[in-house]
Each structure stands twice: as structure tokens, then as C-alpha cells.
């Protein structure tokens, strides 16, 4: 057997091993971050439950000042929708699907580019005894084979988690500055 054949066989076995390992990864992913905000929940609520206000602190909006966005559907609440297109952060849509006033906002998050993905996002507010609010931001969704394979090389929790942390810091600054 030639050296070139051995190289190809070794590469083939390595690729198959990588694919087999990726196939064993979880079928769903979840990213979650939380922050304490020194403001009452009723002050934080409008900043997470209204898409126009959300985009004032949304870290992805801040990544691309040239982002093209359009609001549609209800002005606020369930059915409120935001579509975006950006060279920096891709394109997709975000739609509010459920609200528990003052406590929870659930959203459908659909990405078109750079990869198609259909996820759920949620903001949960927990009023604290001292008047502050704990805000939890989560995103979860299915992990197809391609995302499992990418996950072998890219830590989704760390990558998206950093953006969530930056966004929660932006939210903190806005909420704590409001009278």
C-alpha cells in the first residue's frame, strides 16, 4: 500500500469518526444568561416586551449600524414582528408569540442567513425583594446535523452567550437610567 493511500484512509477514518461524534451530540441547544438590574420589573418590562424598545439595547442591532429592519403586525404584544437584513448579522425575523405581563415574553426567532434556523427566545423577569429585577434571556432550538458538526469546533454557548451578556449590560444601562 502506498503512502498516499494510507494518508487517504487515515483522513477518511478521521472524517468518519468526526461525523460519528457529531451525530452523538444533543438534538437541541440552549443558551441562557441572566443579569441583576437595579430597577423594578415594571421599569424593565417595556424594554423587553416591545420590539422597538428591545432594539434600543439589542446587541445584534449595535453590531451593524447599517442593518435594515422593518416592523409589522401588531404595534406591540403578541403578533408584533421585526424583520432584519444585515451583512454583519445575517437576516431573519423575530415575532412575539406569548406574553405574561410583567413576567415573561416568548418569541419565535427565525434566521434565514447565514444559516436557516428556527428557534425560540424568551425573556423572564423576576422581581426581587429589594426592588431590583433579575432578567433571564434564553434561546433554544433544534440542532440539526450541520449545527452539531459546527458545534464540535465552535462553542455556541460561549459565542451567543457573549452577545447575550453584552445585551443584558445594555439593558441594565437603559433600565437603571430611566426615572
From TrEMBL:
InterPro entries: Polyketide_cyclase/dehydratase (IPR019587), START-like_dom_sf (IPR023393). Pfam families: Polyketide_cyc2. It comes from the Bacteria. This is Polyketide cyclase. It comes from Roseateles puraquae.
Amino acid at each position: 500500500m502506498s503512502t498516499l493511500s494510507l494518508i487517504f484512509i487515515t483522513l477518511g477514518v478521521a472524517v468518519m469518526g468526526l461525523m460519528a461524534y457529531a451525530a452523538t451530540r444533543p438534538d437541541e441547544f440552549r443558551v441562557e444568561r441572566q443579569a441583576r438590574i437595579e430597577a423594578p420589573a415594571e421599569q424593565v418590562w417595556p424594554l423587553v416586551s416591545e420590539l422597538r424598545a428591545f432594539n434600543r439595547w439589542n446587541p445584534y442591532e449595535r453590531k451593524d449600524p447599517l442593518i435594515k429592519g422593518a416592523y409589522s403586525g401588531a404595534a406591540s404584544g403578541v403578533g408584533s414582528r421585526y424583520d432584519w437584513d444585515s451583512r454583519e448579522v445575517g437576516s431573519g425575523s423575530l415575532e412575539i408569540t406569548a406574553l405574561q405581563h410583567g413576567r415573561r415574553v416568548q418569541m419565535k426567532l427565525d434566521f434565514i442567513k447565514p444559516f436557516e434556523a428556527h428557534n425560540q427566545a424568551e425573556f423572564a423577569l423576576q422581581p426581587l425583594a429589594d426592588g431590583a429585577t433579575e432578567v433571564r434571556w434564553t434561546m433554544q432550538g433544534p440542532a440539526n446535523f450541520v449545527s452539531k458538526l459546527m458545534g464540535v469546533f465552535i462553542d455556541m454557548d460561549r459565542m451567543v452567550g457573549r452577545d447575550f451578556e453584552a445585551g443584558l449590560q445594555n439593558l441594565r444601562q437603559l433600565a437603571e437610567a430611566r426615572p
